[in-house]
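Quick one:
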Amino acid sequence: MDVLCVQEVLRFQHMTRVPQALRSSKTDQSARQIVTAIDMRRRLRLPPRAGEQTPMNMVVRTEDGAVSLLVDEIGDVLDVDAATYERPPENLDPQRES
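Output:
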């Protein structure tokens, strides 16, 4: 993810479940704005976090507005050459590519 798309990184915030939304979606109601939060563990079909582990909120700007990605931790910022990217496997569910 381009670091210039990252608006802010926040400690875990209280989330409100959105009726009839995907299970991985909730609403992050920080003092600044209300944005959709996507739990990346659920989105990537990973096991749930340990009970005491709370995610970080990484608020990113997209063409459609801001979204909060719930991630385990924020690591280093790396500059990666586009030539090193790999395409997703052919057997990957197309809905999971975006």
